[in-house]
Amino acid sequence: MDTAKRLEGIGEYYFSKKLREIEELNRAGKNIISLGIGSPDQPPHPEVIRILHEESSKPTTHAYQSYKGSPVLRKAMAAWYKEWYQVELNPELEILPLAGSKEGIMHICMTYINPGDLVLIPDPGYPTYQSAAKLAGAHVMAYQLKEEYGWLPDFSELKTMLKTKRNDQEWILMFVNYPQMPTGQLPSRKLFENLVMFAKENQVLLIHDNPYSFILNEEPMSILQAAGLSEHVIELNSLSKSHNMAGWRVGMMLSTSRHIENVLRFKSNMDSGMFLPVQLAAARALSLPDTWYEAVNKLYRSRKMIVEEILEGMGCEFSKKQAGLFVWAKVPAGISDGYALSDLLLYNANVFVTPGGIFGHAGKNYIRISLCAPEEKIRESFDRIKKAGFIKPKQHV
Ligand SMILES: Cc1ncc(COP(=O)(O)O)c(C=O)c1O
């Protein structure tokens, strides 16, 4: 039986395919070190695990849960936004717990996109924006982020795109994400203000995807700080990266009560709530003090230093001011693109790094190295890459 038309042009997720290839290489004895995916390798705080244990041993916590999440979790999310982003949200009306930010991306697309609607996605950017929008039937257009503009959107280019491609009356969706994945570019308040102004002037609904604001970033920011609550902005956030809870699937959507209600209309037809012990443990995670974030970042900082040594050794150019779980770097002269460098490292050094081209055409000449591997594995990657001849000897002057 043929698959539905909506799956046309939607391939299997790159990592799902690549991880199978890596498994095959491992079965053939290659022992690949993967510096590919951004899945934190450390556990959540012990208190979070304790609550999961405690709550799941009670006989009363196993039933279906409310579609809009436990009030305990929604209140914890509101308190987290107030403490860290100085944004006041009504936990009853303006917050929707999600099974991760990825789930929110799909739900928002299914809630707001009609077949043929224009959706703007960043290039380079998280591939799910494109696939979720396409699954919902959108006409997807990529707006370029360029290194020479500091990986920020070019508003005049965006306006030209809108003028030529849209019907006057329709609203369009636009995905943005700062700290940006994969480039690691940090946001500024000015950027968020400009984005919101652009959205208001052009009938755009901005979806700001914000899962990296606590990683290697001194000042976590929310687009809601710049905008307040507005019909033009939805923010998504997540505990996957900030709390080492990627496999737990806990995220959130923050917006006006109207957007929350609309998305809930879709979501409540998709799932039947989240396991209560997970929600209660996630609430505890959100109340952790700043020492938690400091400890998480200390680890990433020391790993990042070794990744930077690898990149410098290979002659890749990169910015040292990147936030998030990765380092994004340009391939050195002499190597055709990121796919070629990724394959060279995979087949000659048994180290996997992500080719930048999977994040869009603008990422073609880059690679992305993940910090989600133990320091000794990153150090071993350095040694393997050196042994394979890709680390140039240091020039002594
Ligand atoms: C930019 C971006 N958004 C969203 C996600 C997914 O996050 P979650 O685990 O909350 O679904 C990722 C994960 O890699 C990401 O890089």
Strand order of the largest sheet: 2-8-7-6-5-3-4
- How far the N terminus sits from the C terminus, by CA atoms, comes to 67 Å
Look at the helices and sheets and give the structural class: alpha/beta
- Written as H for each helix and E for each strand, in order along the chain, the element string is HEHHEHEHEHEHEHEEHHHEHEEH
**DSSP summary: helix tally:** 13
Number of strands: 11
The hetero molecules present are:
pyridoxal-5'-phosphate
DSSP helix fraction: 40-55%
Shape: globular
Q: What would you note in describing this structure?
A:
The protein has 397 residues and is of the alpha/beta class. Helix content is 41%, strand content 14%. The chain is built from 13 helices and 11 strands. The strands form 2 sheets. A 7-stranded mixed sheet has the order 2-8-7-6-5-3-4, with helices on both faces. A 4-stranded mixed sheet has the order 1-10-11-9. Helix 3 packs parallel to helix 10. The relative contact order is 0.16. The structure holds pyridoxal-5'-phosphate (PLP).
What's a quick, concise take on this entry?
By secondary structure, the protein is of the alpha/beta class.
